[in-house]
Write a structure and sequence with these properties.
The protein is an all-alpha fold and 182 residues long. The chain is built from 6 helices and no strands. The protein has one domain.
């Protein structure tokens, strides 16, 4: 990229945030890779808690605006969120198996979108790294789906950690590229 100028869309002033995000994502990625089973269950429990809390907030909001036309929809939505969150917390192994399937699909779609972004940004921002990130993410999604459900107990942690590692690397490379363009 030396000597090449391209449109940065005002990112030059914010390159440090991309670098910080990259470092943070890489740190979390390494940590989860080292402890994949703990990472898998931590992700599952966190999601369960978030859904439970979000569901209870929906239910509370529904009763706070009881006269509203959307009362029943808000209440039912809250009950659904809370129920799914509670199920994830009470049955963590079943939750892990289900989440493994969801994560496989998520990474497959995320990889496709990241690869598409790389082509959109071509030839700027070291687009090849984004394309590489997209391809790795697609492969991770496929690996999860092929090994499902037998690999569920460790696969979320390990492969999600790898995904975070490469996403962090991509973010860091973008930050250096943008800084260079100043």
């Amino acid at each position: 990229m030396a000597g090449k100028k391209f449109k940065t869309g005002g990112l030059q002033k914010q390159w440090g945030w991309f670098l910080a995000l990259g470092i943070l994502l890489m740190f979390f990625g390494f940590t989860i890779i080292i402890f994949p089973v703990a990472g898998t269950f931590a992700i599952e429990v966190l999601l369960g808690l978030l859904l439970l809390i979000g569901g209870l907030a929906h239910i509370a909001m529904a009763f706070m605006v009881r006269g509203w036309k959307g009362f029943m929809f808000t209440l039912l939505s809250g009950i659904l969120y809370a129920l799914v969150g509670l199920l994830l917390l009470v049955y963590p192994l079943s939750g892990v198996v289900t989440l493994t399937l969801v994560l496989g699909v998520l990474l497959l779609v995320q990889g496709i979108l990241t690869a598409a972004l790389a082509f959109k940004l071509k030839p700027d921002y070291n687009h090849a790294w984004l394309l590489f990130d997209g391809i790795i993410t697609i492969l991770l999604g496929i690996l999860i789906l092929v090994g499902w459900p037998s690999d569920s107990i460790w696969v979320i942690g390990l492969l999600f950690g790898i995904n975070l590692l490469f996403s962090g690397l991509s973010s860091m490379i973008i930050s250096f590229t943008v800084k260079e363009a100043r």
